[in-house]
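Continuing the batch. This is chain 6 of the set; chains 1 through 5 are on the previous pages. Same settings as before, nothing changed between runs. Recording input and output for traceability.
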Amino acid sequence: FVEKVSLLSGPVSVAYGNGAMGGALLFHAKSNLFKENSLLIHQQYESATNAVMFNFLSNYSTKKLTFTSGFSVKSVGNLKMGNNRLHSYDNWGKESFILNGNEQLYTAYQQADFMHKTLFQINDKNSLFFNSQYSTSSDIFRFDKMNDENTEGNQKYDKWYYGPQNRFLQSISWSNKKSKTIYDSFKSTLGYQDVYESRHHKKTGENLLSNRYENVNIYDFVLDFNKKILDAAIAYGIGVRHQNINSTANLSDSKNATFYNLTRYPDGGSSVNNYFAYSQLSVPLTKKVQLLLGGRVNQNNLTANFKTPTFNFSKIKNANKSFIKSALLSYKISRNTTIKTSYYDGFRNPNIDDIGKVFSKNDKDVVVPNDKLEPEYATNLELAINYQTRKLQLQIQLYNTELSNAISRGYNRLNGADSMLYDGEMMRIQMNTNIESATINGVGFFGKYTPSKAFKIRANFNYLKGEDSNNKPLAHIPPLNAKLTFSYIFKRHALDFYTKYNAWKKGEDYDIAGVDNLEEATVDGTPMWYTLNLHYSYKIDEALNFGFGIENIMDIHYKTFASGLSASSRNLILSLSFSF
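Output for chain 6:
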């Protein structure tokens, strides 16, 4: 149901706020905006997991009403890993208990997604938009926990899985295009989400199953306005988000008798209130120079309540205010070349996951709450150069991000002790704390060459480097990655041949707190990998389309950075789409 994904860089934190510290990813779901009546049925099979997918999407319109409806079901079997070990680490990924040849056990799952949208055109100035979504899944096992060993060298867990994740969303939007003194158009959106998830595990030889349940309710209200004054365009708005987080836990036996268990999040309940106002001005200084200025003020209030005496506090109250600003200058040097330079701020408020969570990732360290955590801030400088002709497009981006008060996980003490008993084991204590500063530098390149209508070449690569003030590596920094694609279209035929590449991620470049999962890599880190891939489609007639693809043609074994799973083996994809 995803029509497109947009990657926005530059000063987007003014519009999108908390978390958009250096950019934003926007996922656009399909909508029947063109009032076309259509029906799409799509089926797909993938050999690496014996996955079967079925998708249905329909569009229907009357004079004032437009409907988009769809559902998708997917059944995925166990994932097979690649067989060709060019990296020369013969035992990497060959876990002791959960492999059947190259088949990785406990990786099968099922999911279902449903969507319905209604657009009601009240008149030529007003419209109402209703968006309903629901998704659910089967139990999903945690592969990187099922491969753990106990002190006797046996499988540590005989169960470690996520329960079904259920998500419901309902939003209602009112759009008005009747020009007034303070706006030319506005849009108001009211939204509600209900998310439910759970975690369950039982150690081998034990009788009690640990169950932890989370339920999050999210309420949103946003007002967005647009106004044009002469050549200047102004966008501004206000909004509020309220979140309730309820966390429960128990231990259960085979007869469903339950006993006390420590919750993952504060057991007395948590709430977060977020209020914001923003404004953004776009004004042409000359025919070649465009200036974009923006600002956003944000108030965030978090409350977490603890019933248990585990910690030296019973309540966390975290309130903070953030003001961020941005400026972007676009200069069209010539008909083909544009330079954009920008300075912008970003911020991320500590959430319940940062402040109030109690969990262990590796059964050696346990993360505990920190009631003193503060927001982290980013100051960004970015330079983008774009060159475009009828056949060639080149774009390069250089960026620098300075993080202050950055949130980072590290070893700490609680009530004077550096370890505590958690899930029956003594573990080292970790906390999220604010460090003085951190720096991220990066470069990105994109190129597209279209020598003819039938043939196209696209290439891109990205490189990042992140360090804290002590020159220690930051977590979540991926290795250099690149992609090269050759596309050819001839009459009813379309062919894509592409390669993906990831450079080495050396062990010394992983973070020291274990966030990057160094234990899932080799002793030297994550080796370089590349794949060769092919996709072909044939339009049989106006209604029927056939697709065939081969991913990882050379059947190379690899893991993507920070993953506990070995990536897919050679994967044959067959699809058939019917639309009218």
